[in-house]
Amino acid sequence: MKRTLATLFLASSLILTACDTSDAEYDTDEQSEPVEDSSGETSEGQADMNEHSNEDSDDEEDVSIDEPEESSYLYEVNENDIATIQVIEGEEANERVALLTYDDAPDNYAVDIAEVLVEHDAPAIFFVNGMFIESEEGQEMLREIHEMGFAIGNHTHTHQSLPSLSEDEQTEEIMKTSDLIEEIIGERPRFFRAPFGQNTDHVKELVREDGMVLMNWTYGYDWESGYMEAEPLANIMVNTELLRPGANLLMHDRRWTLEATSQIIEGLRENDYELVDPDLIRSATPEQSESEETD
Ligand SMILES: [Zn+2]
């Protein structure tokens, strides 16, 4: 049955082996669901929403999204697919958003990618592998990315399939990375993404206890043959039917991804997507973490 599931995911570009090519035979129950709704609607109906940037926004906006306070989260990760970014019930915010994320950072191109993002005033999350920030060089890259204002996520220490590890090892993979990140930038990461999107109950609990937001992704292509060049990659990232409001875009620290970044940002904005600021995203289950404080 797992094979069947895996095949389904393959068919819909939600490939388990997002970050390398090892076999995926693990429990896939938490994998992002394939998207059956393929209506590529890009009506102009919502085109008047502001493009969120750090510049002054139009006066119609009554919510200050430039300076989020503790209680001013506007978005959350859908808890069913652990990927889609949705407006928190009762909040007023643009639903037509997309989230940019870069995994396996900072390796070779993350700082360059961050610089391109800054040029475009585009927010994003960089998911960091702890093993990349053990060196002075890696630490300096992380510092630069953080200082440019980007959200930092935890992508485990050595990028193994977490379900194949003992609970102690899972803890080590996650906590070691958060501790290291905190040592370097002075704060713990607020986002967590498991290698291959493979989470366990233990991982979910740890992530919640440490105050992180768990997220997989909606789609990504930069590890697939045929998309390891800027042009086809930028094209599919913007024109795939999987792009819909709340899409969580997975990319990596790769050369072609760097080269495609400008085009991806511009293409999303041309399609009236606002790039969501990760600072506005809260955990999907904030009440749970509060209620567990007494345990
Ligand atoms: Zn990865």
UniProtKB/TrEMBL annotation:
Gene3D superfamilies in alphabetical order: Glycoside hydrolase/deacetylase
An annotated Gene Ontology molecular function: hydrolase activity, acting on carbon-nitrogen (but not peptide) bonds
Keyword annotations from UniProtKB, A to Z: Signal
SUPFAM superfamilies: Glycoside hydrolase/deacetylase
GO biological process: one example: carbohydrate metabolic process
Record's keyword annotation contains Transmembrane helix: no
Compositionally biased residues, Acidic residues: 23-39, 56-70
Residues in NodB homology domain copies: 96-276
Disordered: region residues: 23-76
InterPro entries referenced in this protein's UniProt entry, alphabetically: Glyco_hydro/deAcase_b/a-brl, NODB_dom, Polysacc_deacetylase_ArnD
Leader peptide range in chain numbering: 1-18
Family matches, as CDD domains: CE4_NodB_like_6s_7s
Record protein name field: Peptidoglycan/xylan/chitin deacetylase, PgdA/CDA1 family
Organism whose genome encodes this protein: Alkalibacterium thalassium
Upper lineage: Bacteria, Bacillati, Bacillota, Bacilli, Lactobacillales
